[in-house]
Amino acid sequence: MQAFTRSPAEIFGYDIRYVIPLFQRPYVWDEELQWAPLWADVRTVAENMLNAPVGYLGPQTSPHFLGAIVLDQPLVPTGYIAVRNVVDGQQRLTTLQLLLDAAQWVAQQHGSPMDAQALRALVQNTPAITQQRWEIFKVWPTDRDQAAFEAAMDDDQEVPSELAATRIAQAHAFFVKEITAWATAPDGPADPVPRIRTLAQTLRDHLKLVVIDLEPGDNAQVIFETLNHRGAPLLAADLMKNFVFQLAGAHDADVVGLYRKYWQDLDSDYWRARVARGRQYVPRVDIFVNHWMVARFLKEVPADRIFTAFRDEVRAGKLEIEPLLADLDAGAKTFATLDSWPVDSAVGQFRYRVLQALDSAVVTPLLLWLLRWPEKEMPAQQRDKALTSFESWLVRRTLCRLTAKDINRLVLDLLREMNAAGPANAGDVVERYLATQTADSRVWPSDDVVRTALETEPLYKSLLRARLRMVLEAIEDNRRTAKSEEARCPRGLTVEHVLPQAWREHWTTGITSESDAAERDSLMHTLGNLTLVNGRLNPALSNRPWTDEQALERGLGPTGKRTELAKHSTLKLNADLVYGAATAWDHELIRARTAELTEAVLEIWPAPQDLALRAVPAQRDPLPSGDEPSAEGKYQPLTQWLLAQAAEELPITFDDLEDVLGTPLAPSARRHPPYWYSPSNSLGKAIAAAGFKATGVNLTAERLVLRRK
After folding, report:
1. 453: Cα within 13 Å, side-chain hemisphere
2. How far is residue 113 from each of residues 110, 116, 120, 290, measured CA to CA in Å?
3. Which class for 353: exposed (0-12), middle (13-18), buried (19 or more C-beta within 10 A)?
4. DSSP reduced 3-state for 527
């Protein structure tokens, strides 16, 4: 390859077309990171020229370097206009054309015809020697951006409203606005022509790019990967796309047809949007291809090695391009439509309960593998059995506080088992495989193990709120019948203690000793004392006594918590509470309700019958004892809750932490990030006592990540 330093006048100063292949990523630059800094640099050079002493060759100033572009000359029939394919640098090349055209428009409006024509020569080819209308443009972007580019570069029309929001149109409008403001500034010269002429000279001659021309035999893909290796703003999917279509082109495949049939949708805003993955925001398309590759290749694919793993698999397996792209396209359609499954279907429930509430995205490849098969190859009954078996396995382990550290390897092992057996009996394979696991990290808790765990487990403290809410929602759904007004529990309700956390304020009846108080404290966060209510009803219930008589005695109004629930709540959970506790809500009733709701849990998430016979003891993570480190005062519940967690990282909101503590955070926690990192305050001590540390504190979003040391 050959590399030369060129100015825009040298790059665009003759009839030529720089074509960006369809499989390149679309235009993604924006104002904050690229347009504004570029314009600031160009303006600085122009102003330096205006203020520079005039020499023999005119004003002298240092040029501004814009970066590099890589070009490949395709084998095309001889024609009037030369063509180069843009291997790399399409973002800066497209932006430079938009900037030049915007300057040309401003020169036409406020400058001299000579300057306008000099700039027009850098954005348009000679019309008389073009064969198609788009050949007039020096740069021709990918098909997704072509309509917006053509409209933005046309001086004779307004950009249509449906294209005005595109990055292309916004970039052009930004440069027009900024150049016009600079050239016609009220505090500037009365005549804008000299400023516009200097800007035109700057754009033509004082910007520089390194142009790398590939020669026959140069590997365009290797050069592309090298220039964009590690930390470049390209997505992993962009690198995959470039690689696979370069490979398709080398085998004389219909690249344009393959792109439009299988990949074009993946370049849309939906797929390129950044969505939460743990504490990071990652393009949706990269998350999808990561899951798809695990399901396709049955191997673990680290998030930072998506492209290299894909490239290695394609090369090693000598895979055919079209079947591979067809499988990727089918997986993408499946992934994009996960939200559309009915909420009462096995798939809809699995997505909400496992992927969202339990926040177990690592299970997604399993779901994609199960959904890839048509009904004739995998009966819906087998698919649903696989999903409900895995959901039961995971929910039971979560309720018993068993570790989730091995789940990624378990998913891979399951995928390999199903792949080896074939799709026809996938549900039987999943159930049998999970039922035969005996390792602590994989055992499927039996009914007796779950009963023993939930009898005393403080679920309100040991489960994140979304997980606890999901369990209560499932119990509510289970209690509804065909005669109920609505089949499903509404989402977004809040978890409420029946016996309040601050029970000592109005719930001391029957407490005659410290042991009574300790017993009440131990029962307060168990399953039987928890329910769901509307967020507006929650504050009204608060620490209110159970009966109307108790409320009147304490001067708290005419109604107790029982009446408030009866008047306002439509949930079966609360109707049963009101019906079953007419005069009091005490320890015996809490225990009875815990046992009753536990049986509902076992019914919702059943296990194979033979598990009941094995009754494998579950190794639970211990809560802190008197010999373990703990924090003093109000932050002690946080230490206990953290010690009960199995995850290495816990993304959590400030509100979730306050739920764990049962009390507001200190004001400094919401105002000063260093407060979270201090080992000397009570909050820092509580976190450290559990072996965690605070990271990624975001006061605006009010969230952070607690990471195990």
Report:
1. 29
2. 9, 5, 10, 54
3. buried
4. helix
Residue 77 clears pLDDT 80, i.e. is over it: no
Half-sphere exposure of 656 (CA within 13 A, CB side): 20
At 70, phi and psi to the nearest 5? Answer: -120, 130
DSSP track, 482-515: TTSS-SSPPSS-EEEESS-TTTTTT--TT--SHH
Pairing of strands 692-698, 530-533: unpaired
Note the maximum CA span of the chain. Answer: 103
d(CA 108, CA 545): 78
pLDDT band at 636 (very low <50, low <70, confident <90, very high): confident
Q: Which of 211, 212, 201, 194 is nearest to 63 (CA)?
A: 201
Share of the chain above pLDDT 90, in %: 45
Structure-token match 């370097």, residue found: 65
Note the residue count of the chain: 709
Where does residue 166 fall: left (phi above 0), alpha (psi -120 to 50 degrees), or beta otherwise? beta
Arithmetic mean of pLDDT, 674-680:
69
Rounded to the nearest 5 percent, the helix, strand and coil shares of the chain are 55, 10, 35
Backbone angles phi and psi of 493, in degrees to 5: -75, 165
DSSP assignment of 2-40, as one string? EEEEE-HHHHHSSSEEEEPPTTS------IIIIIHHHHH
Give CA angle at 142 (234, 140), nearest 5°: 120
Q: How confident is the model at residue 115 (pLDDT cuts 50, 70, 90)?
A: very high
Q: What's the half-sphere exposure (Cβ side, CA atoms, 13 Å) at 659?
A: 20
220 has a pLDDT exceeding 90? no
pTM metric for this prediction: 0.66
Provide CB contacts within 8 A for 481, sequence distance 6+.
none
Paired sense of beta strands 530-533 and 64-72, if any: unpaired
Give the Cα separation of 282 and 269 in Å (integer). Answer: 13
